[in-house]
Design a protein that fits this description.
By secondary structure, the protein is an alpha+beta fold. Helix content is 45%, strand content 24%.
Length: 215
């Protein structure tokens, strides 16, 4: 029972729409239990799932931060950019020395895009596709690990600093995952959340996030 309860709690936590309907008593517990059994092939009885859902409702499991997350999403703005590319580079002294050259090539006032993501071993550059050929020439071929094209960016602008709001990224990523959309890259900076997805997923990703902003 403990495993089933944990599984059901996780399924509810990862589905914003279900949480909202449970909170507002707009969903039939038995019907939801049947859906969980069918969609996730749970190895237990219908009554066990119903019991877990009721425990979720009565335990106050819904996190205290969720009302804040919902409020921030409702007040946010959504922007999108298309025709982006990425360059994955090995983090090396030669790569670091070349990075400043990027800024002279990008027309920020004209609307050009430049995003730089840095992790332990790699640096990833997100740029407009039109700039990819010239940007690749800046770096040594041995430092270029991977090039990707046909990417899109979704930028969510909030009315407040979101860096200390738990659950915001989880809410967005779980909704995208529920719609079979993979996040290529993501970054949060003060009041902006940037999500990079494949261009083929961009319309659906936009629609999914737009629906969250207007739930």
């Amino acid at each position: 029972m403990t495993n089933i309860q944990a599984t059901v709690f996780r399924l509810i936590d990862n589905n914003m729409a279900v949480r909202k309907m449970l909170r507002e008593e707009l969903i039939n517990t038995r019907a939801l239990a049947r859906k969980f059994l069918k969609d996730y092939d749970l190895k237990c009885s219908l009554d066990a799932v119903i019991s877990a859902i009721r425990r979720y409702e009565s335990s106050g499991t819904e996190k205290d931060y969720l009302p804040t997350v919902y409020r921030l999403l409702k007040q946010a703005r959504l922007l999108s950019r298309m025709k982006l590319s990425s360059l994955l580079l090995r983090k090396s002294s030669s790569t670091r020395e070349k990075l400043p050259e990027l800024f002279s090539m990008v027309d920020f006032e004209g609307g050009d895009t430049l995003r730089i993501f840095e992790v332990t071993k790699y640096i990833k550059i997100i740029i407009d596709e039109k700039l990819l050929p010239v940007v690749k020439k800046i770096f040594m071929e041995k430092d270029i690990v991977l090039t990707e094209t046909k990417l899109s960016e979704l930028s969510i602008l909030y009315d407040a600093d979101i860096t200390k709001i738990p659950g915001l990224f989880a809410t967005l990523s779980s909704e995208l995952a529920a719609n079979n959309i993979s996040i290529v890259d993501s970054m949060i900076c003060y009041n902006e959340h940037i999500i990079i997805v494949s261009e083929k997923d961009s319309k659906l990703a936009f629609d999914v996030i737009f629906s969250l902003l207007h739930h």
